[in-house]
């Protein structure tokens, strides 16, 4: 009976300790996520990169957006807050290993049936010229004609056929924008492009047939939490043979998770060993102190 009555009393401190730890962890998580949401002005504040369209190469690398990475989505007020590839190239402004910002956008269903937001680089802003039924691209004026770009009109205004940009991205490819494809329906917007898409911009594919309007943009990517988004992608089945996870990211994710799990255990073992060592030293010191303070006649008596 005494043993049974003592068991619940011994469990109470353990349960309280666990509840306190869970409460502190939950509070920290709420503060962190709340701070990110307040800064980004978006919910959710983080997005997982689901494809390899922004990778620079076949495997993950530092400073680029790879499959399984997490990025913060910062709300934008108007298009002037977004630096395109062309503007970035002219000024030297870079993010994620190339010129310009990276945005997350989601067109309406009549433009893109897939509801998954797209995270690509805004390449160039085209202003629709209703008078000439053409496009103006004033940003091009900041680069050198003939060296960096060419158009059918010979200038960055009243472009009706094509825009050619040279040495684009980490592959140094040529991007040829077919203006005729953008005139139906015609409106101003961004030409968007994935860094790993070999110059094939979104408006040439089913990714987004129309120029990206400012109101379709959820926000621009800022920062990076590498690898951890792979956990979500494995759970929801997004990782497939046609969309594989980067091998380096998998290795680093496993190493990070193992470190997170094993580090507290290793610390606990070290603390326990140190405590035992200290206890032995204290016991040894106590014995020495007793011998030192023991009366002489007791010592003599023992010797006899």
Index terms:
single chain, 304 residues, alpha+beta, 2 domains, three-stranded antiparallel β-sheet, 5 helices, elongated, disordered C terminus
What would your notes on this structure say?
- The chain is built from 5 helices and 12 strands.
- By secondary structure, it is α+β, with helices and mostly antiparallel strands.
- The protein has 2 domains: 1-40; 41-256, no CATH class.
- Strands 1, 2, 5, 6, 7, 11 and 12 form a 7-stranded antiparallel beta sheet that branches.
- A hairpin with a 4-residue loop joins strand 9 and strand 10.
- The protein is elongated.
- Residues 297-304 have low confidence and may be disordered.
- What number of domains? 2
Integer-rounded radius of gyration: 31 Å
Topology pattern, helix = H, strand = E: HEEHEEEEEEEEEEHHH
Q: Count of DSSP helices?
A: 5
Q: What's this model, at a glance?
A:
This protein is an alpha+beta fold and 304 residues long. It has five helices and twelve strands.
Helix-strand blueprint:
Layout: H1 2-40, E1 46-48, E2 70-74, H2 85-91, E3 94-95, E4 98-99, E5 103-105, E6 118-129, E7 134-136, E8 149-151, E9 162-168, E10 173-178, E11 189-193, E12 217-225, H3 229-235, H4 247-293, H5 296-303
């Amino acid at each position: 009976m005494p043993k049974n009555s003592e068991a619940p009393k011994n469990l109470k401190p353990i349960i309280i300790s666990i509840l306190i730890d869970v409460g502190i962890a939950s509070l920290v998580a709420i503060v962190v996520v709340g701070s990110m949401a307040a800064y980004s002005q978006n919910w959710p504040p983080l997005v997982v990169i689901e494809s390899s369209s922004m990778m620079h190469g076949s495997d993950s690398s530092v400073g680029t957006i790879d499959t399984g990475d997490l990025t913060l989505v910062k709300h934008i007020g108007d298009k002037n807050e977004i630096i395109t590839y062309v503007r970035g190239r002219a000024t030297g402004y870079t993010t994620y290993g190339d010129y310009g910002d990276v945005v997350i956008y989601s067109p309406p269903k009549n433009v893109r049936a897939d509801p998954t937001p797209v995270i690509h680089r805004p390449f160039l802003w085209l202003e629709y010229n209703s008078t000439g039924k053409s496009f103006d691209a004033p940003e091009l004026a900041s680069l050198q004609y003939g060296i960096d770009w060419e158009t059918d009109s010979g200038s960055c205004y009243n472009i009706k056929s094509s825009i050619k940009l040279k040495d684009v991205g980490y592959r140094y490819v040529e991007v040829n924008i077919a203006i005729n494809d953008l005139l139906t329906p015609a409106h101003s917007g961004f030409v968007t492009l994935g860094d790993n898409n070999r110059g094939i911009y979104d408006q040439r594919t089913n990714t987004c047939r129309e120029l990206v309007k400012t109101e379709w943009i959820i926000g621009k990517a800022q920062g990076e939490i590498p690898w951890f988004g792979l956990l979500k992608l494995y759970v929801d089945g997004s990782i497939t043979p046609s969309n594989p996870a980067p091998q380096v990211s998998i290795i680093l994710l496993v190493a990070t998770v193992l470190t997170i799990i094993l580090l507290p255990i290793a610390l606990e073992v070290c603390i326990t060993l140190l405590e035992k060592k200290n206890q032995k030293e204290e016991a040894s010191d106590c014995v020495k102190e007793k011998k030192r303070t023991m009366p002489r006649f007791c010592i003599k008596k023992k010797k006899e």
